[in-house]
# Entry
Amino acid sequence: MIQKFLMGNEAIALGAIHAGVNVVAGYPGTPSTEVLETVAKENDGSIYVEWSVNEKAALEVAAGAAYAGARTLVTMKQVGLNVASDPLMSLAYVGVKGGMVILSADDPGPISSQTEQDTRHFAQFAKLPVFDPSSPEEAYEMMIDAFECSEKWGTPVLFRPTTRVCHGCASVPIRETYEKHPIEGFVKDTMRWVIFPRTSFLNHEKIEKRNPQMGEEFSSYRFNTLTRVGDDDCRKGICTSGISYSYACDALECGTSESYKILKIATAHPFPEKLALEFLEGLDEVLCIEELDPVLEKELTYICGKHHLNITIHGKLDGCIQAAGENSVESVKVALKPFLNLEWDEVSYTETPELPVRPPVLCAGCPHRASFYAVKQAMKGQKAVFSGDIGCYTLGNAAPLDMVDTCLCMGADVTMAQGLHRAEPDAVNFSFIGDSTFFASGITGVVNAVYNETDIILIVLDNSTTAMTGHQPHPGTGVRMMEFAKHAGTISKPEDICNRVSIEKILQAIGLTSVETVDPLQLSEAVEAVKRASKLPGVKAIIFKSPCIAVMKQQTRYQITDTCINCKKCIRELGCPAIVLEDGKPTIEKSLCTGCSLCTQVCPCGAIVREEADHE
# Structure
């Protein structure tokens, strides 16, 4: 073994590589994204890696390879598991031949997600095993174990790191050598691989018999641990999992005069009941410390009822642990202090000034700002509703743009606009969607709108990347993941790598007769395109195409001259972070300006001009 300082996601990726993974597919989503990127970067060419168009496609690609005996990894975040749930539920019944691990990274907080959903529930729902690492070191080893478990039981396995494990860093012992996994090949067997109702019934019976056996085996799994601290006659216990176990260990370093047991659960399903009974023996009270839902708490409550144990189980359900959000060392100390008489006093800090509120905003020079502004100007005085989507452009909801009226989930903007139109046909309904999201989940909604002859205006915000999650390629970029990684993310001529999928041609093929592609930074042209579309019946589309500034920074910048009349229109209407007030007058922060020129087109007196010398 050698030591490497790794991010949790890097450790997970190396664990998959050292387990002999053959195929990796996924869809980017924080906090999971770096797992697939690391596999691509560390790939010697023998592992196939792809960013799929969405999580459902990724899971199905991996399932096909696993049918043939390949070891496969699928990566996504917790809301992506919702998208993949259709094939997942059936795959749980069908099973796999090669080991298959489905990584679904949960996001307590949430820090960068729409929900705080707990993947452990999905494991219970789908009747699949789930691994829940508590540290980057554990995640590396546990990934290898997950592949072995999958192949032993012929089932896909869920892997559930949370944000602090994914993005935490540690010195991780890793293997110096490993064997590549041989692929046997697909063996035809319709009774196994074709999911008929009778087959599902028989497989369901097998799963119900298998899971208690897995729970029995998990009772001796090396990362499910039971520790006793203090006297043998202890009456209190702590049950925890994931990063909350690390928080509990840190909190307990404060010391306590009480004796206790601590049970760490790495496999919440099937639950290691035998180990839990050993933990519960002799206890009067248990405190469950976990994120996000009371999964361990409910399991222990069930076991106590099943075995007639008179033990009080504390946790989220009785308010001893917060119901939502992340745990922390401090919050765990607060819970443990009354439970174990923890020798800890809250530290009083010298009062410091409050930090300024810094809400997330669209970057300076972001073309989405110009797109939203163009639509807003074109629709002045008209009744319009703006349905938004998941991505950087969700930030269009903030003042002064105020251009995102709804945001539910990826792709829902297209279909929600249709429902809004049916309820209020007198309003002009807009659907804003990004280029990556269009491929991931937007196409189906557009087909639905065309088929049902719904009057909506589709606005595709095409910035030539998946910006929100770190600028991953997608079908419209002309770049695949393996080439992207090989060229370190910098490819000057992507069309030389693979064919781009044209959004415009897709829309025309679906049946749209009005599809315009416009540069949103040409404000007057963009406004006129929106006005034309608003007068047409049916589904109309405008593709606002301009690259993300992080992908292609412009080489000009602008300044505000003395002819400024201090009307502050540039600030009031655009909200660009590069335009700030200095001594009560607008000025441009040179380090932020990218030269998009939108402010020059908005200024009523021509006071914003291009600097004579371009900056490098």
Notes: The radius of gyration is 27 Å. Residues 212 and 604 are 73 Å apart (CA to CA).
